[in-house]
Amino acid sequence: VPPSRVTLLTDFGTRDGYVAAMRGVIAQISPEAVVEDASHEVPPGDVLFAAWTLARYWNLYPTGTVHVVVVDPGVGSSRRGVIVQADERYLIAPDNGVLTRALSDAQQQRAFEISNASLLRQPISTTFHGRDVFAPVAAHLANGTAVSAFGPSIDSLVTIEMPEPRRAGGVIHGVVVMSDHFGNLVTNIPGDWISRNACVEVGGVAVGALRSTYADAAPGETLALIGSLELLEISVRDGSAEETLRIGRGSAIRVIT
Amino acid sequence: VPPSRVTLLTDFGTRDGYVAAMRGVIAQISPEAVVEDASHEVPPGDVLFAAWTLARYWNLYPTGTVHVVVVDPGVGSSRRGVIVQADERYLIAPDNGVLTRALSDAQQQRAFEISNASLLRQPISTTFHGRDVFAPVAAHLANGTAVSAFGPSIDSLVTIEMPEPRRAGGVIHGVVVMSDHFGNLVTNIPGDWISRNACVEVGGVAVGALRSTYADAAPGETLALIGSLELLEISVRDGSAEETLRIGRGSAIRVIT
Amino acid sequence: VPPSRVTLLTDFGTRDGYVAAMRGVIAQISPEAVVEDASHEVPPGDVLFAAWTLARYWNLYPTGTVHVVVVDPGVGSSRRGVIVQADERYLIAPDNGVLTRALSDAQQQRAFEISNASLLRQPISTTFHGRDVFAPVAAHLANGTAVSAFGPSIDSLVTIEMPEPRRAGGVIHGVVVMSDHFGNLVTNIPGDWISRNACVEVGGVAVGALRSTYADAAPGETLALIGSLELLEISVRDGSAEETLRIGRGSAIRVIT
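Above: the input entities. Below: the structure tokens describing the complete assembly.
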């Protein structure tokens, strides 16, 4: 049997030992589980950023993987915790919309509220559900506990509004949804909407037709290409588009087809 | 048998490959050991910070876990390395007081000097005992080598002075002991010292009675609550108390009971 | 049998989930492989930095370890991907010279081009070969696939020029090759070239004879010692030589023997 696998996505940073506290709790309950760090550098409380980050990897992992997401500005309030079984992986998170983007890719899903106190760490702190709620749930799932054991099934989840691209009169209108470590600007425009001879505009300035890769631009040149999420991205070769263009999340992108 | 588990807490950062050097040495000696990163972002040489960080997780891990701490401004000097067996976990560190806070929570402990050169990597560099001393010791412990094999038992350890809270005339006097990634200010005042109607003061300014959680404050408001270490913490909802209040380690906190 | 082990060295950062995407792909193909992070903080596109970082750990790991290096400014161009079997470890990287420093320490090596598309993730994006090329290759190697299955053997690799130290008239001339997280300046001068009474000069200023360790200098003092790579290093005790001396990669170092 392959090992049970748990990934962790949080805004805790890696300095203070909060992630280690979660890992310790998991190891107590499920010593054989393999725990991997997805990211702990989500900007504090940035649910939208986490939603997009999760989309980069959740369905690349094997079926059975348990993905934990703790970006949780409402910790300690009445917001509930949930488990969603989607395409044979498990997603564990506060019910604050952080799963919206991942679930929009899922073929199949069912959701459960986390309410069975006997499967949580007691007493539950009001500020650290990563340690006291989400880590034990992940560990018990890794041990094979049935998802229905954690609480009742639920019909709907909180969602966050994801900006949708639209087409109007030969023009595609989209926005930047996130920037990455390199300063690449990821948009919400699907790569397969864009023809080879379309012209991409950022802030009213044309950056030209799609390139195949960074090497097709001159060093320092701004370019448009289809990135690894199969979405339109704006980049600067050997540089940062975010810094060069001084735009970011929410900035308008147009494609003249 | 569950896997042997080793955690690493250092001030090495994650950029330069120093942690990988430790991991490689451990893997050579104990290929089955599971190695986890607790934190490598301790401020360089900040033994007190590491002492508090260790306290966040060490006893959440299963018995048998080997916790390595390498925050070691005296590397290469005559300071010794030690192994402390505490509450059935192992703590490996330079004898510079970095274990003080964790051991103050332990029910039972015994300490050994690291002196058996045959269990270390040779030659031992004068600047990187993480690789040449502490990693091999961790790996051999993970393999089941008896703690007494590494050197003689010792009666006392170097300690660092941890500021103690005190009560005087209806007032609790404490200090901030650390801030975290979110800018929360952790104090040394135990949560169970504070009654529900006590008033918390920071820098002479009242922040009011304890709240249960962040959501009980308005966005941007300063609040006091009992954090996940069961100590009084000062926070700003959806913000950083450290930045808002411009205080940090050592700042005085008063609670009027 | 000990587990197959894969290490990852990239310039992806840890924020965006790119590393998790690689880990997911590896887990799908080789669920039992142990995957470790070496560093993801290589400055973007800095092949030379990665080359030195790899040298810190690659041959400390057990034989059979698969080391993946993805610092790849030419991703999507015609540069090829390679596997080098060196001293019984595997090194997987773009053929851009990033292996130069590690291979200069190897006793034995043979190289293969990555060209067997059936062992890669399809379709291959033009911007993320870490996920689509290097991760699957690492996972298949971890599964025991023969190195020759990935493509033809090749006779030469791209190399980067590594500055060489030289001796002239009783003076050793070298340069700083990297600085680390603590601000220590690593030079290219081998420790065993330097006699105990030689005088080290940085920027024309004498820092004196070699010390054995940091503790032999006063706090704040600049010192020269032999670091953990067995190379001359310049440090400031309890401080950063990089910040204090305001020098870095490429700066000249002289040793008067």
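Note for the figure: Chain B has five helices and 15 strands.
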